[in-house]
Amino acid sequence: MFEQELFAGWGDMDFNSHMKNTAYLDKSADVRMLYFAEQGFSMTEFMRLRIGPVVMKDEIEYFREFHLLDRMTVRLTMAGLSNDGSRMVIRNEFFRGETLAARVTSTVGWLDLTNRKLTSPPEPLLRALDKIDKIEDFVVLPGSVR
């Protein structure tokens, strides 16, 4: 299981003194990119391949608050993936200790940076996607490439 230990920083706070919604999205993206980098897909490699992840939809569910400097564990799982890897639903769960505090579910595709169209990832990246732990109700998605 891929997870990262993070903390709620000064720039993550909102007027109500808890972590703002966009901070959950930013930390989710950071954890995804840390996973890809660990699998050999750094930003340099994505630029070489001329592809990048593009988020088409995010959904955030809140269960508990995070306050300034609270430590959190952010877990990465796969909720859905197309056979060609062109479409996926990635889930990030935020834990305070053992307690689930929030969940971000993102629908993501791969953008061909030259043609500005959705594409399928190369085989090594598809293998990296397939290695992400799948949730219990994982679904196979239709592909996005025509």
Automatic annotation (TrEMBL):
The keyword Transmembrane helix does not apply. GO terms for molecular function: fatty acyl-CoA hydrolase activity. The keyword 4Fe-4S does not apply. Pfam families: 4HBT_2. Keywords: Hydrolase. PANTHER family: 4-HYDROXYBENZOYL-COA THIOESTERASE FAMILY MEMBER, NOVEL THIOESTERASE SUPERFAMILY DOMAIN AND SAPOSIN A-TYPE DOMAIN CONTAINING PROTEIN (0610012H03RIK). Belongs to the 4-hydroxybenzoyl-CoA thioesterase family. This is Thioesterase. It comes from Paraburkholderia ginsengiterrae.
